[in-house]
Amino acid sequence: MKVVELLRKIFLIDLFQGLSVTFRHQHPDDLVTEQYPIERPEVSDRFRGQPRLKNDADGKTLCTACGACALACPEKLIKIGSLRDPETKKKVLTEFGFDVGRCMFCGLCEEACPTHSLELGKDYELALYTREGMELERNQLENGIPRKVYEK
Amino acid sequence: MSDKQFYESLDEVEPGHTFLGSNELVLNMGPQHPSTHGVLRVILKLDGEKVNGLECVLGYLHRGIEKVAESRTWTQFAPFVDRLDYTAAVSNSLGYCLAVEKMLGVEVPKRAQYLRVILTELCRLASHQIWLGTHLLDIGAVTPLFYTFRDREYILNIFEKYCGARLTNHAFRIGGCRWDAYEGFSKEILHLCDDLLPKIDEYRELITGNRIWLQRTKNVGYISVEDCRSYSITGPVLRASGVCWDVRKAQPYSSYEDFEFDIPTGTASDTFDRYVVRVEEMRQSIRIIRQAVEGLAEGPIIAKVPKVIKPPVGEVYVSIEAPKGELGYFIVSDGSAQPYRVRVRPPSFINLQALEKMSKGSLVADVVAIIGTLDIVLGEVDR
Amino acid sequence: MVQQLKSVYGSGICEATTFAGQNYLVVDRAACHDVLRTLDEQMSYHCLTDLTAVHYPKDALPFEVVWILYSMSANERVRVKARFADGEEVPTATDRWAAANWMEREVYDMFGVRFAGHPDLRRILLPEDWTGHPLRKDYDLQHQDTDWVRKNLGIESGQ
Amino acid sequence: MKNILGYLHSNLTPGEAGSLFWVTVYVLLVFAGVATIVMFMNWFERKAMAHMQVRLGPMRVGPHGLLQPVADALKLLLKEDLMPANADKLVFWFAPVTVVMTAFCGFIVVPFGPTHAITDMNIGVLFMLGVSSLSVLGVIMGGWASNSNYPLMGSLRSGAQMVSYEVAMAMAVVSAVMMSSMATGTGTLSMIGIVRAQMQQHVWFAFSFFPVGLIAFAVFAIAMVAETNRAPFDLPEAESELVAGFLTEYSGFRWSLFFLAEYAAMIAVSSIATTLWLGGWLRPFPNLLAGKNWDLAFSLVPGLSFMVAAGLCFFFYTRMPKIRAMRANAIGQAGLGCFLFALGVVLMLPGVHERIQDIYWFTLKVLGFMYLYIWYRATFPRYRFDQLMKIGWKVLLPISIGVVILTALIGVRQELFALVWR
Predict the structure, then answer these.
(1) Which DSSP category does C64 fall into?
(2) In B282, C64, D66, D147, which residue has its Cα 20 to 30 A from B337's Cα atom?
(3) Interhelix angle for D149-179 vs D212-227, to 10°?
(4) DSSP symbol at C36
(5) How many structural domains compose chain A?
């Protein structure tokens, strides 16, 4: 046993073992790199990304301006403006502000929403060069933000 | 400014203050340094290459999370704890939820408990993989970092599918889980377990027998059992010194008593033993995950908790075995909807204190190895 | 255990109760150091798991310092709590546990509670020249050391 | 003019022939060649390491990132040239120059072929060892002049390391030089002479006196890694400990000079190893497979190998996804294939293929060493300083001295036997 160990040591077996591992991994099948703008990752269904406000089939907002999301938000970044409709005595959403720059994407607003109108969607390219533009307006949340697609 | 003026201005800052012998060299490692794992700053006092003393300067990542808690509701604070130890966000989340549940006296449904076990053990795997990669990188082996990060990516994919986020998951809610297992959850996890085991063997083949690795880690960073006690060291560092203590066994939480697993211990209490202990822990985690997936019963995933959580007046201390050690939450409630005080017992912070003890008299290269072996995350140290 | 402690310290032990299955001792501030010693030396509570404080600004003795001890042989935790007045010095635990060093520094940093006999009582998480102790309840959340921010970061406000 | 053309028919190196024109041409060629190989090495190292680490490496600039080193070089040249306020300006400026000068001086005696060397010195090996060990001066100068702790420690480590490994290295070289005396009775220190000796003895010195030559070769191969500060002996620039060691305060052009010098030094020591132990420019089996036909066959290999590379380029060109984002890349790849094919054709031309094949075989052997360097770097952790010293003085040095003694004993074995049996 001792002799075997000594021989292993002299012939640098341990080092060759390590070398063989790195050598084996050069096989092209082992590559895991994703070339991002060309290959885009598939995000899962539950992914929490860009916030969206959903409309019903007629294009009318589902939001009832109840303010549950604003209350639930740990960062208090949701601003809701509403007016009471004099006829139906219901609150009507006038504006909806969402500051993505401060958002943690914890999903608490989504959970609090009784009508499931606010959701954290699947878009994940939220980076901007400045902080302006991070505060999303209602129409941006409803229609989504066209992002510039970089190809190269 | 001429050189003379410059040195004179130094004297003005610290009049007559010298903490040096004439042949001591002060080396300022960090806060921006490749191997201080974030923004730890270590001031080394060197005699040539030998470390005569060192001092840690903390707080470069201090975000005042304990203060933040005082102005959030109990539910709202949950996403913040993920930002403590961001390599093991799920563990933090579990600890906090358990603490609040204990205060409320809520019994979490079995299925939720098992889901929690599966996710925290996956998270332990992910955390240990980061540790392994970065630790080896500190010692100079570049390649294992990529292998471990590749494997961690598969775990993060499962997190993403389960709860929609990869790193700071906010996976659990007070009273149970927010999401049920997605379709194909069990199958995917069992498959992952089968895949990971040979990969752990691969790390071993690459490094465990390697003479350079052995020389760099054996007898480096020794700490005695008595010192471990005195420094309140927990987690793999404690277990490598031969103390078989793990919160999961000592004070089981979240159904850990249902599972069969061993607690790996070391004997030499050096960097190499800690490596062995952690790698073995990865195997044990896989074992637990397999049992939990098989035992996953149907049922509710969240207990009945009021919408606005108002725990009774009182205080509890609840701790779990996070990948880094014992992660404790000491929470005080005044009966309102907001925490009165949330104190986190951060394992990294407390383990890091032993750095000075462990590295005195060793070489500069060893300090780097010891920082790696302590497995600190600065998000948790500085909070 | 409580009986034993009570027989030694008498009125030093104010209260020994259980909440949510967890034991704690409320100790008079004069006796706290001795109680910790007894727990460590005679009752196998060898590990100092955590040391922290809570601020109750309305009370006469506003600072509650909490020691969480753990006994590995009995697998049991106990919390020792003592109340201190503002500006009063708490006896240090660093002579018994090396781990108490940074924990006490953190309590000093966050609450301004001073520890008598601590070898190196400085701020640990905040910068040395920061003013105020953030975890005190009277430390306003919006408040920050604007002077410090201006001087060191070169911006008007960090908020 | 007649002299200039006349040289082409002589069998001498330009230095020996005393032709100033051809010396200049050769110096320029060697400099350009080494600089190109360094550029290529930069790409190759990133690519090979990336594949070992299951990554792709540079992919964006040029086909498979081939133009990445050019982009890097441009970036480095355009970068602001920083100098620490309290640096010793003159020494700080002179350090990278010293390192580059010493690294390139060594190439004066490297024989890429029987006539393809700038000159053939009769102390060639000694010259090479001496010059390459001078580079430690530059490193120490750079570390000291930076007036900063990390560079200082890095340069101290480097100084100690290079000095200690020099000894083992030189001892290993002595053994090879002794072997060169076997056939003729007189050994030589000339690089060309040593390769000729291997030709005459019908064996590469790595395999002569088996396993003595192999051990000497192994000692040299280990010591040369330490000598060039590469992993696992890269302590002077240990990234995780000393940030970048003696390079910490260097940036931009100066830094790129250090970089150039490091790779040039790697190529230089690999050339020594190739020359002394692996038969230098000799093609495989020059004696066993001798004859006109074999000569022709082997001399066509360089051209053919380029053509195979071109074929691979075209093959992958057809497999590329046909999307707009990849178009520039695809054109680049096809262009590269055409270029390689043209190169292959040129190398096959009569008159060229006989002359070029020596250089080809030499370069191939050196590139093998380069691959080893990269492979080590991707695999091994880093030694600690005291362990490094221990290996240098307590392991390599005794072994290399033993090898020298053994070589001597085996070399004079007949005389010894005669002495004993008389």
Answers:
(1) E
(2) C64
(3) 160
(4) H
(5) 2
Neighbours of B343 (CB within 10 A): 27
Residues in B touching D234 (Cβ below 8 Å): 140
Residues A25 and A57 occupy one common structural domain: no
Report d(CA D308, CA D288) in Å as an integer: 26
Q: Note the residue count of chain D.
A: 422
Q: Which residue has the tokens 């201080």?
A: B36
For residues A62 and A4, membership in a common domain is answered with no
Task: For residue B170, give the nearest of A21, A47, A106 by CB distance.
Answer: A106
The minimum CA-CA distance between B166 and chain C, rounded to whole Å, is 28
For D243, the closest of B6, B34, B210 (CB atoms) is: B34
Q: Kindly list the domain boundaries of chain C, sorted by start residue.
A: 2-127
ipTM at complex level: 0.82
Residues of B within 8 A of A72 (CB-CB) are: 75-76
Asked if residue A59 is part of any domain, the answer here is yes
Looking at the structure, do residues A56 and A27 belong to the same domain, yes or no? Answer: no
- In chain B, which residues have their Cβ closer than 8 Å to the Cβ of D377? 142
Hey, what CATH class is C2-127 in?
A: alpha beta
Query: Does B215 sit within 8 Å of D384, measured CB to CB?
Result: yes
| Spatial CA neighbour of B174 closest among B65, B307, B85 | B307
Does some domain include residue A152?
no
pLDDT per residue, tens digit, chain B (383 aa), is 444 554 555 544 444 444 444 567 788 887 888 877 778 888 888 877 788 888 888 888 888 888 888 888 888 888 898 888 888 888 898 999 998 888 888 888 888 888 889 999 999 999 999 998 888 888 888 888 888 898 898 899 888 888 888 888 888 888 888 888 888 888 888 988 888 888 888 877 777 778 888 888 888 888 888 888 888 888 898 888 888 888 888 888 888 888 888 888 888 888 888 998 998 898 899 989 988 888 888 888 888 888 888 888 888 888 898 888 889 899 888 888 888 889 998 898 988 888 888 888 888 888 888 888 888 888 888 88
Does the CB of A22 have a partner CB in chain D at under 8 Å?
Answer: yes
The CATH number that domain B65-382 falls under is 1.10.645.10
Considering the domain boundaries, does residue A23 fall inside one? yes
Q: Which residue of B has its CA nearest to A34?
A: B150
Query: Which residues between 179 and 208 in chain D have a beta carbon less than 8 angstroms from any beta carbon of chain B?
Result: none
Same-domain check for residues A86 and A136 = yes
How far apart are alpha carbons D22 and D14 in whole angstroms?
6
Q: Are residues A74 and A117 in the same domain?
A: yes
Please tell me which chains touch A, using 3 or more CB pairs under 8 Å as the contact test. Answer: B, D
Q: Do chains A and C touch, with touching meaning 3 or more CB–CB pairs less than 8 Å apart?
A: no
Q: Residue A24's closest chain D neighbor by CA?
A: D52
Q: Other CB atoms closer than 10 Å to residue C145's CB: what's the count?
A: 17
Give the closest of C46, C49, C125 to B382, CB-based. Answer: C125
Phi, psi of C74 (to 5 degrees): -90, -10
Other C-beta atoms within 10 Å of A90: how many?
11
For D345-386, how does the pLDDT look when each residue is reduced to its tens digit (9 = 90+)?
Answer: 877 777 777 777 788 888 888 888 888 888 888 888 888 888
| Touching subunits for chain B (3+ Cβ pairs under 8 A) | A, C, D
- CB-based contacts of A144: which residues, under 8 Å, 6+ apart? A50, A52, A123
Identity at D74, one-letter amino acid code? L
The answer to whether residue A77 is domain-embedded is: yes
Q: Which of D380, D272, D373, D348 is nearest to D44 (CA)?
A: D373
Same-domain pairing of A132 and A66: yes
Which of C77, C79, C102 lies closest to B349 in CB terms? C102
pLDDT digits (tens, 9 = 90+) for C98-141: 888 888 888 888 888 888 888 888 888 888 777 778 888 877 76
B136-162 tens-digit pLDDT: 888 888 888 888 898 898 899 888 888
Taking the Cβ of residue C23 and every Cβ of chain B, the question of whether any pair is shorter than 8 Å is answered with no
Distance from CA of C155 to the nearest CA of B (A): 17
CATH number at residue A136: 3.30.70.3270
**pLDDT of amino acid A148:** 64
